């Protein structure tokens, strides 16, 4: 891609002016200026011809970090031609900005490496590359931009903490995980024990009782299932600031990640759609794309989410402190009767309150979230 520089545009305008004014006024000097500047442009264009013999490659130390952690990458440039390359500037787009690297002349097969940093102060997906060579003629009238590599995606995950709501929303299920609580009726057999008055007759193991001469009963591990649905509010007016929304994203990610790490089912909905969740890593990748949108209200988002996940045993609604109590109440009305609901207000004063029998947990910052959540599920 070849384009005129600002100086090149100035020379082109001077050439046009020289030709037009020279012919109109009959001034040979102006015509001569027009000819001279036109020759300069043609020579500059010819000087910019040709392709670079350089090949570039982007290598990232890691493609995923948590917001605030360091992100590093390396730019590897190699001369793949048979002659010595000339010194060039390489441009590397990194997110919304770009970095320029001065590459010296390289002999055939010689390489040059440069290290660059990636901004990780805010959650998001950072597009890195493609690397382009930026060459110009000696005067600087024409520049050439030639892509030398592909691009890479770098994910900055939201900050997370261990926010556990494990005491909420358990359902007995034959496909659930065995808990430490014992039961006389389930499918996860544990052991035989002596009969205690009150044990059901169906739990008696008659063959063992006959052999031992005393009544023995079966004892089981109680199997339970927890299916959590976390609904993150997407309505811009419900969040007091960008920082509060980022706190809400971190809380939603923390709650879901804690559930998944405990090998329980957790899904996240935003703006009425479910985020990708085949693996915990892909779920966190999806959080990098989340941005507020007025397209879906809080109530509509919750209603759509419970429609997508009708079997959720606990539903966590994460919203901002600007959300009216009437709107929260309307959102809770869409929650199925068999599910347990919890409302988390990001940015609000840290306290536990109640709304139509549903716990409402205010959390000021991520650091105190684990303790606040522990108090909420007591």
- Overall number of structural domains: 4
| Share of helix, binned | 25-40%
Shape, principal axes of CA atoms: elongated
Secondary-structure element order, N to C: EHHEEEEEEEEEEEEHEHEEHHEHEEEH
Provide the β-strand percentage band: 35-45%
CATH topology of the largest domain: Rossmann fold
Provide the CATH top-level class of the largest domain: Alpha Beta
Spans where pLDDT lies below 50 across 5 or more residues: 169-189
**What's the architecture of the largest domain in CATH terms?**
3-Layer(aba) Sandwich
Which radius of gyration do the C-alpha atoms yield? 33 Å
Contiguous helical run count:
8
Q: Could you give the count of β-strands?
A: 20
């Amino acid at each position: 891609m070849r384009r005129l520089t600002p100086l090149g545009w100035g020379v082109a305008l001077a050439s046009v002016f020289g030709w037009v004014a020279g012919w109109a006024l009959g001034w040979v000097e102006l015509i001569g200026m027009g000819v001279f500047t036109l020759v300069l442009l043609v020579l500059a264009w010819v000087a910019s011809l040709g392709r670079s013999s350089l090949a570039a490659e982007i290598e990232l130390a890691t493609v995923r970090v948590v917001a605030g952690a360091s992100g590093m990458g390396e730019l590897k440039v190699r001369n793949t031609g048979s002659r010595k390359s000339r010194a060039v500037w390489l441009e590397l787009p990194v997110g919304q900005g770009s970095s320029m690297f001065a590459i010296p002349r390289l002999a055939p097969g010689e390489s040059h490496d440069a290290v660059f940093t990636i901004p990780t102060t805010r959650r998001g997906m950072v597009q890195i590359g493609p690397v382009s060579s930026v060459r110009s003629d000696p005067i600087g009238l024409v520049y050439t931009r030639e892509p030398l590599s592909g691009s890479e995606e770098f994910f900055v995950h939201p900050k997370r903490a261990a926010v556990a709501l494990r005491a909420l929303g358990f359902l007995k299920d034959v496909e659930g995980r065995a808990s430490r609580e014992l039961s006389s009726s389930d499918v996860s057999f544990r052991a035989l024990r002596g009969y205690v008055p009150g044990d059901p007759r169906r739990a008696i193991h008659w063959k063992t009782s006959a052999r031992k001469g005393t009544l023995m009963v079966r004892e089981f591990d109680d199997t339970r299932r927890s299916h959590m649905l976390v609904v993150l509010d997407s309505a811009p007016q419900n969040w007091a600031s960008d920082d509060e929304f980022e706190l809400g994203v971190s809380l939603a990610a923390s709650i879901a990640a804690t559930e998944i790490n405990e090998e329980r089912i957790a899904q996240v909905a935003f703006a009425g759609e479910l985020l990708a969740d085949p693996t915990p890593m892909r779920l966190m990748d999806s959080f990098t794309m989340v941005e507020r949108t007025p397209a879906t209200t809080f109530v509509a988002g919750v209603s759509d989410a419970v429609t997508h996940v009708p079997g959720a045993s606990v539903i966590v609604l994460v919203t901002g402190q600007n959300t009216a109590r009437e709107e929260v109440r309307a959102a809770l009305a869409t929650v199925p009767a068999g599910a347990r609901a919890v409302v988390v207000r990001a940015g609000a004063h840290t306290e536990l309150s109640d709304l139509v029998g549903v716990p409402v947990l205010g959390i000021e910052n991520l650091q105190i979230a684990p303790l606040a959540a522990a108090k909420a599920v007591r």
